# Entry
Amino acid sequence: MDRSIKEVRGIGEVRARQLKALGIETVSDMLYFFPRRFEDRTRLTSIFEACDGDTVSVSAVATGAPQVSRPRKNFSITRQSFADESGVIDAVWFNNPYIKNMIRTGERYNLYGKIQAKYRKKEILTPAVSRGNDGLEIVPVYHLGSSLTQNALRQTVKECLEIARGHIPETIPEFTRKKYNIAEIEFSMQNIHFPEDKKAFEIARKRFVFEEFLELGLGLGLMRSEKKTDKTDAFKVFDDEGFLHRLNYKPTGAQERVMREIKNDLAKNTPMQRLVQGDVGCGKTVVAAYALYQAVKNGFQSVMMAPTEILASQHFETLSALFPDIYIIFLSGSLKASEKREALEKIKSGEGKIIVGTHALIQEGVEYNNLKLVITDEQHRFGVRQRSALSLKGGKPHTLVMSATPIPRTLSLILYGDLDISIIDELPPGRQKTDTFAIGSDKRDRAYGFVRKNLEQGMQAYVICPMVEDSEASELHSVQKHRGEIAKKYFSGFNVEFIHGKMKPSEKDEIMRRFVSGEIHVLVSTTIIEVGVNVPSANIMVIENAERFGLSQLHQLRGRVGRGTGKAYCILISDNRSDVTKERLKTMSETTDGFKISEKDLKLRGPGDFFGTRQHGLPELKIANIFEDMPVLKDAIEASKEILAKDGELTVFPSLKKRIQSLYKEEISF
# Structure
């Protein structure tokens, strides 16, 4: 299984490079490179029954000689007529003149391809050709890189299966396979690539779905148990009254509950590992501020890391206003050299008590004095490794991670299995539901007229576009062009500006400062304002080309409005009529519940896509679908707990241990 792919028959230097681009360097890599779909060529269709647009298998006899034409330079078309008992069809190949050498008149062939019917004549386009029973099989279709062909990849898989036969390590313990009715590895590996029939494929797929989820459960379980053995400083002083006195309002019941959970964690000498989840606008920042304040009261340093400079600077301003008597330092990549040098000195000396910033907080050269609390905001933007890098700066500090991307609780327990979970499920008083409308572009004038009326009443607006610059090849709205158009057509007399991620940090900060101050009335933006920006007088948002955004992203964007006391609105403009788009926009119009939205988003997206598991440092889901395979997921997580209960070091399961080590190289040390 560890043999280099270069040692496989038929693999030269060029093919090896092509496979490496797909992440395939060993026999094992190739075998775990699962097909993305299958072509069932076993079901034969007569020529008469084959309809335009269908992809079918036809068994027919070659009639007449093949014809090759060359309508232009470097382009050829090869035609060959075939007939069965029901009719005649032309097979058509493009730029494949050598196919004529494979076909003999009067002999029967199996053709598999897409039917095109026009002018009462049927064609089968670029069909795969085989004889006898060779082509009547269920054929895997793989994700390909450039220059690779399906046939070449299938042949490589067959060679690897032959090499590995009898040597594929069984990673799932026998007692687990028996309890959960999981097929053994040799049968599964053969039938996930070249299934005997549909039933065999389903059995094989279940095995690998279970295996992926089991590896996820084991990895997270081991990471969690490692952290439980760590020791840190317990917080001994808690000045709750002092903190609450600084707020100009009473926290919600949910905020108070989460603060109690954090307090209990901080009072222990095992590091806190807690995730705070909550919908947009639920008040997670107040909870984070509570933890930061307690760190200061105990004489410790604390840091708060955000994914963007805009969000980090907003946290800095919020905390500075809340704690005017505490030395808070801001650290980001855009600081001048002299400013950065001064900040680093104050951090190292311990003069800076709370440090707020971006990824700059984990760069080389940043030395902390007595770091005992680490908070990361918008956790889905950071990986396990980044989280770990920040924690290592402080030895074994308490860790609090926050996410405004609500995830159904069952999945939270799995994805963040190394963390305790708190949920803020209550919005502060005064937060209003944002009314959401999905419209076509034919109602754009009316929508922007409505925005203008709100501006005349002293409100502000966001307009979101999917692109930064205009492109001739795209009909999508761009920030730069759209700003000019709407300023002239709809908003004369108002200040309309744009912001996007390609601008310099100083330019973005200046635009946001002017928008927050009310100097800018309409801000045209990309999704850069998706997270955290708080402008209470911005009560209306228009999202152009709404079909270009995922449900959770639309929900995050919508969360930027309705943060004041005025009624808030979100208008989604799209002419896309696909079922997925209609479902997304319908969901957005009907609910503002982030947990319901994330569940629907999960259902609409493909496997592995929802969480972007790679950025979390977790193994990528290659075959499992978290939503559709939920019953298998629950079984696999239960099985992972049973295995770790038997052997927390996986010593008696060497093949499984080796697999986990290879998947979690940087996260787990045995």
